[in-house]
Specification:
- It is a single chain.
- By secondary structure, the protein is an alpha+beta fold.
- The protein folds into two domains: about 45-105; about 110-185, Nucleotide Exchange Factor Grpe, Chain A, domain 2 (Roll).
- The chain has four helices and six strands.
- The strands form two sheets. A three-stranded antiparallel beta sheet has the order 1-4-5. It has a three-stranded mixed beta sheet with strand order 2-6-3, with no helix packed on it.
- The longest helix has about 55 residues, at about 5-60.
Length: about 190
């Protein structure tokens, strides 16, 4: 063998070794990147799981709270319709009502405010719509309180809303026009 061929073989061996080393470095780099992605995916999964567990924990009391709301309503009606006399019995009922309200508030329940509010179908259920001095779609009266649990509606507030001002003359004019139309159709 000549010196040139020996050098060429050594160069080929070195380049093969270099290629193998580069290949090992690339494989190592790929494995490190895969490990980092796997760790990131696991961390995201853990955060999503924690978030979902927290959401389930918050909403776990939903069923019992929904069942308690009619009891709260009945206490409210009892106090609203109670005689003006301030008896010990009435004070006891007021304390129970306050305790029940405190219990549901401590569990993330909030009453939906309807006073001076514009009708919002997300929070309100309109049972009646009547003409009034109030602007159109303003809540006039609340028939039953609505509630949210951690910001999610669990019962809509049942309300009466305004249809706005209705001019009486328009009704009479329309009635006369309808009569005239029916009279002329008879001829």
């Amino acid at each position: 063998m000549t010196k040139k061929t020996i050098i060429e073989e050594q160069l080929q061996d070195e380049s093969k070794e270099q290629l193998q080393e580069n290949s090992k470095d690339k494989a190592l780099s790929d494995m490190v990147n895969l490990l980092k992605r796997t760790q990131a995916n696991f961390e995201n999964f853990r955060k999503q799981t924690d978030s979902r567990v927290e959401e389930i924990r918050k909403m776990a009391s939903r069923n019992i709270i929904v069942q308690l709301l009619p009891v709260v309503d009945n206490f409210f009606l009892a106090l609203k319709n109670a005689p003006e006399e301030n008896t010990d019995f009435l004070q006891g009922v007021e304390l129970i009502y306050a305790q029940l309200n405190s219990l549901i508030q401590d569990n993330g329940v909030e009453a939906i405010n309807t006073e001076n509010q514009t009708f919002d179908p997300y929070y309100h259920e309109a049972l009646m719509k009547i003409s009034s001095e109030e602007p159109e779609n303003m809540v006039i009266e609340e028939f039953q309180k609505g509630y949210t649990l951690h910001g999610n509606v669990i019962r809509h507030a049942r309300v009466k809303i305004s249809a706005g001002k209705q001019e009486k003359n328009n009704y009479k004019t329309e009635k006369k026009e309808n009569e005239n139309i029916s009279d002329s159709s008879v001829n």
